[in-house]
């Protein structure tokens, strides 16, 4: 055998090998024993293996794990949380039809809806996330898909998901939930009557701020196959290396969530009482919009807290945030390390009024010692207080 060929033919290692971890199966080409099997490879896109883009044993293992957690018969992974939203929407919406989104949806949804869906002739409609069964008034034969996101991004309103899914089901309208906040450990949208549950795996499921991925879970085989076909038409796939990182992160998701939740809960009283904070949002608070739906439909909360600050904090906001050394400044969340995101003003709303006119700060509580996080937060809060108008002091 020539050296060039020797470089291609590796002798198998001797002896049995078994590991507790899931192997990383990298692939573009997948090989077949027979010409007949190769000819039939297309049918393997849903369950078997036909090409690395459409699945490997590593990604299938992750998909099965996510399906089991979501209480779904099927799940697929896609390149990002937003890819899951886009794929689901584009698979089930057609030109001339309408898609409904809650007014507090993840921020990229709005430009996607207005600029991208609009160009395809699909009409986006934004609705009050607290609409509940009154959504019925918006449901006519032109509505093809209704999204929920509960709690919603930044403002954390909890939706009456069973009421919305029931109203849609009655009219044969498909529903999809962005379950990123809760993860399937805290809420199972399919059990609440939703047809499709998506997650940004980038957040708590992977849990270490080093992977971007999304998941889509369903109970209907035909829906699954439509989604899988469309992911193929759009060239979407997930690498085994990243799936392996997520499988590793998932092993600690339950204890990470418990810890993030416990630390977040321990901070709430202090934040609620603070003069610079006009309102605290966390679904466990009685005052949180939709709290009763959270108590009914969720098995717990997480480490996300949103603060609506007094408008007078604006001049010192940046220095207060920068003084919070335990909080990295950044947009994403759900990792091991605490992160703070700042909006100078409330996010755009078109169906509802902004809750307050002051700055909005989102804390993603991580796994640091609660004492260190409290001290770090106090430093920021002290700086905010320094801007309090004299008349109030
Ligand atoms: C982050 C996020 C997304 C998008 O996920 P990516 O993986 O970053 O694309 C979607 N929905 C919610 C609620 C999110 O927080």
Describe it:
This protein is an alpha/beta fold and 393 residues long. The chain has 2 domains: 216 residues, Aspartate Aminotransferase, domain 2 (3-Layer(aba) Sandwich), CATH 3.40.640; 140 residues, Aspartate Aminotransferase, domain 1, CATH 3.90.1150. The chain contains 13 helices and 12 strands. A 7-stranded mixed β-sheet has the order 1-7-6-5-4-2-3, with helices on both faces. Strands 8-9-12-11-10 form a 5-stranded mixed β-sheet, covered by helices on one side. Strand 5, helix 7 and strand 6 form a beta-alpha-beta unit. The longest helix has 21 residues. The model has no long low-confidence stretch (mean pLDDT 96). The site of pyridoxal-5'-phosphate has 14 residues, from helix 4.
Sheet with the most strands: spatial strand order? 1-7-6-5-4-2-3
Task: Tell me the CATH architecture of the largest domain.
Answer: 3-Layer(aba) Sandwich
The kinds of small molecule bound in this structure are:
pyridoxal-5'-phosphate
The number of domains is 2
In the CATH hierarchy, what is the superfamily of the largest domain? Answer: Type I PLP-dependent aspartate aminotransferase-like (Major domain)
Helix content: 25-40%
| Shape call | globular
């Amino acid at each position: 055998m020539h050296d060039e060929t020797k470089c291609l033919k590796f002798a198998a290692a001797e002896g049995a090998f078994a590991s507790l971890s899931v192997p990383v199966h990298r692939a573009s080409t997948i090989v077949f024993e027979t010409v007949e099997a190769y000819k039939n490879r297309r049918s393997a896109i849903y369950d078997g293996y036909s090409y690395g883009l459409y699945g490997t044993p590593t990604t299938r293992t992750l998909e099965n794990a996510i399906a089991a957690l979501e209480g779904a018969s099927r799940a697929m992974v896609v390149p990002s949380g937003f890819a899951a939203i886009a794929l689901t929407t584009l698979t089930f919406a057609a030109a001339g039809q309408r898609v409904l989104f809650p007014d507090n949806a993840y921020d990229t949804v709005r430009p996607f809806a207005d600029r991208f869906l609009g160009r395809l002739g699909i009409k986006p409609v934004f609705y009050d996330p607290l609409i509940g069964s009154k959504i019925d008034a918006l449901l006519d034969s032109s509505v093809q898909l209704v999204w929920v996101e509960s709690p919603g991004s930044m403002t954390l309103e909890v939706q009456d998901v069973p009421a919305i899914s029931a109203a849609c089901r009655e009219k044969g309208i498909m529903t999809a939930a962005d379950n990123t906040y809760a993860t399937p450990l805290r809420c199972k949208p399919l059990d609440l009557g939703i047809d499709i549950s998506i997650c940004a795996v980038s957040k708590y499921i992977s849990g270490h701020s080093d992977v971007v991925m999304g998941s889509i879970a369903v109970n209907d085989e035909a829906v699954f196959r439509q989604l899988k076909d469309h992911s193929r038409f759009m060239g979407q796939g997930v690498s085994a290396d990243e799936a392996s990182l997520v499988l590793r992160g998932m092993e600690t998701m339950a204890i990470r969530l418990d810890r993030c939740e416990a630390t977040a809960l321990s901070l709430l009283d202090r934040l609620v009482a603070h003069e610079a904070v006009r309102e605290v949002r966390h679904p466990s608070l009685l005052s949180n919009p939709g709290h009763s739906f959270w108590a009914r439909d969720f098995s717990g909360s997480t480490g996300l807290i949103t603060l609506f600050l007094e408008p007078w904090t604006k001049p010192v906001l940046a220095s207060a945030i920068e003084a919070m050394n335990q909080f990295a400044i950044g947009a994403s969340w759900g990792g091991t390390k605490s992160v703070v995101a700042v909006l100078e003003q409330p996010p755009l709303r078109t169906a509802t009024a902004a809750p307050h006119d002051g700055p909005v700060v989102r804390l993603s509580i991580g796994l640091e010692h609660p004492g260190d996080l409290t001290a770090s937060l106090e430093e920021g809060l002290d700086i905010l207080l320094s801007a309090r108008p004299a008349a109030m002091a």
